[in-house]
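User: What would this chain look like folded?
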Amino acid sequence: MLLSAKDVKKVISGKLINLKVEDIIPNENQPRKTFDEYELIRLKDSIKENGVLQPLIVRFESGKYQLIAGERRLRAAKMAGLRKVPCIIRRADDLTADCYTIIENLLRSDLTVFEEAEGINRLIKIYGLSQCDIAEKIGVAQSTLSNKLRLLKLDTELRQRIVAARLTERHARALLRIAEENRQEALDYIIAKQLTLSETEEYIDRLLAPKKEKVEPVRKCAIGDVRLFANSLTKMVDTMRLGGVNATTKQLETETHIEYTVLITKQ
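Assistant: Here's the prediction, encoded as structure tokens.
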């Protein structure tokens, strides 16, 4: 389908155009991979009652209208039985279209934290852009973008469980602080105890705290113990005497020490 002169005029003037739903093809690079069925049904009911309140964003590419933003609205509109939906046509190349898709989803909080990270990572890989370039294009700080990309270090199972438990991005980042082999067990505990973010960070801090070695207390000798040792030595010397050994003892006690001497006469 080619744009008519009337359509072009509408695009230039910024006016809306109603397009048939079958004329809109989905965006293969859509970062959102999952669509909550309950949320779609709620949106469908709203559209039945009030219509599509926010226009879809499309571009004209290779003779077709390609969706840039608004896939949930398009799906819900189809479920509601709408034949046409309001759209705004943007002139955009592939990179601009992909960036716009991510921006629109970020602003509406439509994506999970991992879908955001995967979408950003795809832009970097496909278009060979740096993190700084992408951050500038989608309007976020580079540190924010870098933190989002770090989430991709979590394996698929962990990501799915974090999303299902409705944990935050910062919950996920806290798990990155510990060794990979300990993350599943830590997540089990966080979910089971329904830890808040601050509680989660405190829990991770405890896991990372160095283990204190248990040191056995050293028993100090009391003065009574020294006397006991001296008595034992005296008894030993007495035993030597009974055995015919000529032995004598000499004891000298000062403020700092006790000196005990055993003298044995050679036979």
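The chain has a mean pLDDT of 79. If you want, I can go into more detail on any region.
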